[in-house]
Amino acid sequence: MTEQAKVPAIRFAGFTDPWEQRELVDIAEIVGGGTPDTNNSNYWDGDIDWYAPAELGNNIYAESSTRKITQAGFDSCSTKMLPADKTILFTSRAGIGNTAILRHSACTNQGFQSLVIGDADVYFVYSMSERIKKWAEEKASGSTFLEISGRQLETMPVNLPSLVEQQAIGSFFSHLDDLITLHQRKYDKLVIFKKSMLEKMFPKDGESVPEIRFAGFTDPWEQRKLGDVASSFDYGLNAAATEYDGQNKYLRITDIDDETHEFSKSDLTTPLADLAMSADYLLKEGDLLFARTGASVGKTYLYRQFDGMVYFAGFLIRARIGEGADPEFAYQATLTDAYKKYVAITSQRSGQPGVNAQEYADYQLMLPSKTEQQQIGMTLRSLDDLITLHQRKLELLQDIKKSLLDKMFV
What we know:
By secondary structure, this protein is an alpha+beta fold. It has three domains: 20-160, DNA methylase specificity domains (Adenine-n6-DNA-methyltransferase TaqI, Chain A, domain 2, Alpha-Beta Complex), CATH 3.90.220; 166-207 and 368-410, Orthogonal Bundle (Helix Hairpins); 222-367, DNA methylase specificity domains (Adenine-n6-DNA-methyltransferase TaqI, Chain A, domain 2, Alpha-Beta Complex), CATH 3.90.220.20. The protein has helices at 71-76, 122-126, 129-139, 150-154, 163-201, 226-229, 327-333, 337-346, 357-361, 370-407; strands spanning 20-23, 28-31, 44-51, 61-62, 67-69, 87-90, 99-102, 107-108, 114-117, 157-160, 222-225, 230-235, 241-243, 248-251, 269-271, 287-291, 300-302, 309-312, 316-321, 364-367. The strands form seven sheets. A five-stranded mixed beta sheet has the order 2-9-6-7-4. A four-stranded antiparallel beta sheet has the order 12-19-16-17. A three-stranded mixed beta sheet has the order 5-3-8. Strand 6 and strand 7 (99-102) form a beta hairpin. It is elongated and about 70 Å long. The protein starts with 19 loop residues before the first strand and ends with a helix.
């Protein structure tokens, strides 16, 4: 029985030759690092970039290290100079497999086994990072912490096409990563901008008007308790979750996304209860939910009609915002630093942190006229929608990349 030729599921037109199995050592020199004596001041604060694993983060490229050594420091230890644009930094211990393409000559500490690429396309090999990481984690050993040696890493089997096909694949993933990075930056900027707007569109402590205000509004804001603008505070349904029936959704603390505060529908369930007798726990427009205990205490969610029929669970508290206030404004107020500070102080308990319904009702917030509340709520909601849009685009691109990495490599 002949062995099936190694080819990926998706391929660029014009390439038909089977991929060849080689070892990583055939395309890369594996280079370790070293550390000068930390007590010798003559070895540090020089002009040679020296990397430690924690500096890589999630960056594709290593641009410049925060710590530098002198030539004397370099000469005193086992670290090696690594060439720019040909080296993939690879962490080999205590967090195996973080990678970055080196953009300038530098050296590393002993927490790396870096890949200096020879007869191969650098970005093609970089795109295999997750495969290399998985293999290294499986082969790693150590009693204090897991570590992969250079000798071990050299023996990793890799499947390779021609250099021209490698370059086509590497270029494709380079452009895809650029697109992902672009959306990540847009998302990050919007998140920062939203945080800034929350600070400027709500009054600071001791002040009665915000820093930024819509034209036409001049009246001072009034301090009110949340309980003054909510018609009721209710605890949720004490029922187990069961398989989703296609209509009746069950909202628990863990179903509220930590970042967007939206109802995450990735794992829908239905409450195991007599729903005909549970109508009081069915959410409607104007319902604002608060997490009442545990690590997520203070987390909030505003019900929106497009979420459908939703029952809320027992570790949540519902504030039903009355006609005199705008629910969106009240929700946005729970994203401010003032609210977070209140929760941090109020939730202190001898056991798990917690805030009860009366304590939420006692929260003091600043309120303008309802018309101004609606303007602020609508503006901040539009920002949230834009952030969510970029987040979904980012997640879609990341999912596309993951799928293509599976299909374009052998």
